[in-house]
Structure formats: C-alpha cells, structure tokens
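User:
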Amino acid sequence: MKKFYFLAFSLLIFLLSFTFSAKAYVVAENLTASSSSQQQNNYELPYPGLLPDSPLYFLRIIRDKTVGFLISDPLKKAEFDLLQADKRLNAGIFLFNKGKSSLALSTVSKAENYFTQALGQMEEAKRQGRNTSEINGKLKNALEKHKQELGDFVKKAKADTKASFEYEQKRLMGFEERLNH
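Assistant: Predicted structure:
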C-alpha cells in the first residue's frame, strides 16, 4: 500500500512539473516581446514553471532538491545550478511584473545563491583537473544576463526594495571576479 501512495505521489509530482498556466504563458510572451527591443544580451532565460506564489510550489522545491541531491558530477551539478538560477531569476521577473516586489526580491536572492553554487561546482571540477571552459562560458553569458535584469529591477524598484536589489547587483560583481580567475 505504501508503494502505491509513493508511486501516486511521484506521478503527481512528475505531471505537475510539466504543467503551466495559460496566464503565465501569455505573460512570458509579453515579456519576450517587450524585452526584445532593449535586449543587450541574447542569453535566453528558461521558463520558470510554477512561481513561488503558487500553492503547489512546495512540490517543485521537493523535486528540485531531490534532483540536485542525485547529481554527483560537478560539471553537471554546475549546469543544474545555473538552470535553477536562471529559472529563479525569470520567476523574479514574473513576480515583479505582477507587483509582488518583496517576493520577487526573495526569489532573485535565491537565484544568486544558486549561481554561487554553480560557481563552486565549476571550481571543484577545475580542481579535479576537468575542462571547465564550456561551463565557464555559459556562466559568463548568464552573468551578463543577470546583471542586465538586476539593472532593470533597480531602475523600476520602489524605494522599499531598491537598496536590496542594489545589494544583489553588488553580489554579481563578486561572481565576475570568480569567473575571471
């Protein structure tokens, strides 16, 4: 009986990982159209999926933590962490555009935490003597996109969150130093 519940729960998580709301899709299309005119970096952020304001978001967290735990190769883990960073950044953009700037700030901060983890995994792979040029290039492109988006947040943010977005911008400068070593 326990196996049945486990399989049913696993199937539910799997199915939920592929669902998205039509409203979010429309917002994504509008964001793509509006940002293409001012796009400085052609690095594309992945679709964020469930947003932190969703009541089912905890299922995504469980799934992501489980997948991350199962990855042992530092290069693959760095790519996974970068993907999570990019998804969180894009989720922050969606939330900010919905007027949820505090939740957007928290989500962007988590994105930069994942970026830090990706840098750490790349450095671990480098210590192991592995070729990290490909992931290093991806991280540099992603960093430029993160800087661009955080710059947009700082320009648009209200006074109550502006300083916090500026702090996240400063964190990115430290990432740039780590990437250029």
